[in-house]
């Protein structure tokens, strides 16, 4: 099955029009009594009922963000994929942007303060940045890291077994393996890695932290990275940060110091936070119905496709992909005005029956699984080969080393982290 990206047509001037938003089975008038977004399910591993309602009702709906501002939510696969590839939907927040994302005064990580003046987010500057970063996350480089990832996974499982027969996957593997891997990649001293959890939580806040706390985290993180960069400039190591410093110092159009700091910060935060949460969610999803995990135990060759299906099936994703409209346009019949905030929800689009046969069934052997969990278009996640490798190694190791693994609590008792852009479970208790 192949997919095509429908063209996004120009909108006639005038106010934005979106489909009515449903409450239960009753539609409300557009722009009134909006649903609060992100949606939350009654049971952590079940999709919120609103996902199917809004997706089947129309491809774009109006929602209210944690900030209290309104945005347009894109819910269907074709429209979402097309939007992510369209240059009129920008990450760079325009001066006339209407809405903030987070509840802090400036909107949090998706604020103008966080992106202002940085050429690496859009246009030719972003293309140049991606070419530079592509050298860091090649398939060859990631595959060369697998033995290290495997050794670390075995080390962590050894510790679990020694302390068992009960553990917390979120704490004992998720909170450790990704940050160690990304720390090794960048060349961050192991003894400093514990700082990143506090900084990441503040930077990725929706409602949990104030603007003052976010600003302090950004400042402290930036100061730390500036010192680390200068230390590596004086004494380079065999690591990615030293390599980036060398490349940017020796080639035309190099990154300036602020852009280098932001790049390192983005790699450290995105490179460990999302995967850390996904390790716990993946384990919970597969153990909530043990036949899923047993399928992997019986046939380890399906680990790669199982990981991608878990990514598609995630019911506790991030807030989505915010974009800002640079001109009046129409998406799926909805007119959206310049300056509007648009949120693409990969998780909702990943269950679109127009693209995925039997989307509500977890098929660990699913083929042509072109989910949008890593985005699409010019901002497609460059770190996805590393994330996939870590998840594959963890799943394969658990299936091989702990074939009797099971959830130690009822799936309904899983507690979702609150107030952050990146979502995971507080704990994933298991036993064997």
From TrEMBL:
Family: Belongs to the cytochrome P450 family.
Gene name of this polypeptide: eryF_1
UniProt superkingdom: Bacteria
EC number annotated for this UniProt entry: 1.14.-.-
PROSITE patterns documented for this protein: CYTOCHROME_P450
Keyword set, alphabetical order: Heme, Iron, Metal-binding, Monooxygenase, Oxidoreductase
Listed GO MF terms: heme binding; iron ion binding; monooxygenase activity; oxidoreductase activity, acting on paired donors, with incorporation or reduction of molecular oxygen
Record protein name field: 6-deoxyerythronolide B hydroxylase
Cofactor: heme
InterPro entries (UniProt xref): Cyt_P450, Cyt_P450_B, Cyt_P450_CS, Cyt_P450_sf
Classification via PANTHER family: CYTOCHROME P450 BJ-1, P450, PUTATIVE (EUROFUNG)-RELATED
